[in-house]
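Self-study notes.
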Amino acid sequence: MSNEQSEPIANRDTPIPVVSVTGPPDHSRPPTPSNENGSQRHLSPSRLKEKLESLGDNFARPESPGRVSDRLFTMLLSSVLPSEDLSDDSPTPQVKDRRSRNYVDRPNFSLPAMSSNFRRFNARIGVAFVFQNRAIRLFTWRQPTQTLSFLFVYTFVCVNPTLLAVLPLACLLFFVMVPAFLVRHPPPPMHLPTDLYPLSGPPLAAARTVKPAPELSKDFFRNMRDLQNAMDDFSRLHDAVLAFITPLTNFSNEALSSTLYIILICTSCALFISAHLLPWRFIFLIAGYAATILGHPAIQDQLATPENERLFSEKESEGRSMLLSLSKADIELETSPDTREVEIFELQHRALHDEHGEYEAFLFSPSPYAPLSPSRIAGDRPRGTPFFEDVQPPRGWRWSDKKWTLDLLSREWVEDRCVTGVEVEIEGERWVTDLHYEELEDSSSSVRKGKKGKGKESDSEREVLRRAWESHKPSRRGEWRRRRWVRGVERVPFGNGADA
């Protein structure tokens, strides 16, 4: 018995469609009563098709190859997609993404669009793989005459670099237009080797057009195979390059990376001065010949021996050890953490018309909430935290001092920020208190009435408020006062809780 259990059919008070197909009528048998007239009803093929179409559109419509491939790729992509949102609308990303839509406006990810674009791309990428296969055959010496011909052309280009301007046009002529002409004007089937190619006469065949590979065809799956292999080759090359370069350049070993940086910058400066003195034609000629000769099968067999592989590994280890010893001898890194000083302003408030009232603690704010600050002019309330303990160091930093220190140089920070309309205490608790101007209050109220509903005030309105403060004497202290507290912070080293 099979362990699989079939799903039960649930009756939801809906009729179950049943189709019955019978053969041609047999007159030797008595009619079977199936209706009121006592005659049996036969279902023709056309009526069977109509019956199936009435049951559902999918029963009578066979899926096209494009729809099948579309569903195939959609299922494939949906199985590998992550569950989180891939859009760029996440606020304040921690790592700057140069592929974000903030830099270039491109369509968002869409599974149907991805499936359709992949099928279109795979149908048209065959020419790239043809070029790849020809390059592999050329540099692996499958046909030595072609490889030698390439070396001759490369030699001419290295000797006379101006031939680079002719090379694309020559490739277009000999690899595109000549084959297209041969398709339109094929040679006669029987001719002597000494006969000239017939150039006259009407075209004998249709012009060749490049068309995408039909979906689910042999060429389509060949492109998929080559694309699969190309992805594997790129992944291997990518991992090999990163495994070689990343430990040297990512400053995981800061002394080693610093040594390499000094070597590279010195080499760059030397080449900037003396690059025109180097024989670049000879250098490129030797490099091209060496790369082409290394692709010969005999040379590859010699290089792939275990002894040579062990020799290359030893030479690489010796080079790295030499850089390490050089970095340890000449590079001395600063290990003390970077220190800074952060500030917080203690704000106190009292009612404006309560001249004899006491100031009450309000909050600790990162800004002094000066009389001419944009938030103050706009009528916004100060922002901050009511307790010292809630003030946190910046991200990636930690406190280097045990407690906050009152800034005794209150006049200096007031002058540095060009704060006006305040009274500064140079002794005592160092409060910087607002000064209330009666005419200023009238001017600001009229300005706000005139600009009601138009957003923030302009620079000319701020200049009016500034002149009012400079030209009139205060009547009493204002409703806000503040003083500055400072505290030292230092960078958190990697591995001690800092954000990577």
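Second protein, same conventions, sequence then structure:
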Amino acid sequence: MPGVLPEGETVPVDGSLPASATAAVGRRGFGVYVHVPFCASRCGYCDFNTYTAAELGGGASRESYADTVLAELALAARVLGDRPPPRVETVFVGGGTPTLLPADDLARILDAIDRTWGLAADAEVSTEANPESVTPASLKTLRAAGYTRISLGMQSAAPGVLAVLERGHRAGRATAAALEARDAGFDHVNLDLIYGTPGERAEDFAASLDQVVAAGVDHVSAYALIIEDGTRLAARMRRGELPYPSDDVAADRYLAAEAALDAAGFSWYEVSNWARTPAARCRHNLLYWTGGDWWGLGPGAHSHVGGVRWWNVKHPTAYAARLARGHSPGQAREVLTATEAHMEDVMLRLRLADGLPLSVLDEPGRAGAERARTAGLLDGARYADGRAVLTLRGRLLADAVVRDLLP
């Protein structure tokens, strides 16, 4: 089931923000995230804020969901009022499975965002999708509506791995959907992989990488399997039905991904993400990683505006009920201190291929960076130029490097 949201201070009923936040909105860019919490079935490893029809019961409806999101968008426009953000640079529709909504509803949401704040002429507009939830016709509708990028959850090319993960699509469907998306005119297509699943062989992951490259996509994300408490996969491991993932195997898989993708013309730009060209990088995720602002619409969605971060109530029924009363769906929020903002900046920017300037580190942090350089975890040439940039070995140990750079 979905994980637990953090605690925080109460969000005002009208959703109002401190003047300091609204005055700063968009200084590092502005995007919109739309959460669609519906799935046809729950994968065994998933603890995202998603719900099947059986889990929802009669308390929420896909049919009315777009209207509910538009109600929150109207509230957001009131909150920002006479200090609207600059043009929206990125929109990302995630889930769940956004493409379980009719393509016309996804088009209507995008049109409302444009009418509310205005889309930049070169805005990146992404949606996630499960491979079985799109068709050539629905993809053409989304493209015509202004969606420019699609991210397909492939996870693996091996039927046995898909079965352990409890994925609903057949092997081969993800790459077929990627080709359909390119035929529909999408500018950018991403395939997501998960590695380190119990039972996955090295040759299974190699076959997945081969299929990704053959599909002609321009972006690949690859993540190590994480076992989250409360999921069916975690329960199976506790019962001894499946072994826990191996860190050594995960490292081997990552090195295999880097080798195969580099040979195919991809370059890493974030520890878990590779793109064929700079233009293919996910600009919405870069907005997150570089401290930009975004408004998150939907149950459980997180937002960040001018140093204030808040998150909505999780259940779609509670979310809709608050908006029906004209209230903010925000459950809680926090105002980031300068120390917290610095820690997040270091943690996120170090994962990028551009790294971060050594000048943003304090004296203990620079000492930690020097240790990391000496250990071969930071690139020596970039270090000499005043930047902390992870080496390939450093990417494998990124969390440890971050800890050494922070107090």
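Instructor comment on the second fold: Residues 337-407 form a domain with the Arc Repressor Mutant, subunit A fold (CATH 1.10.10).
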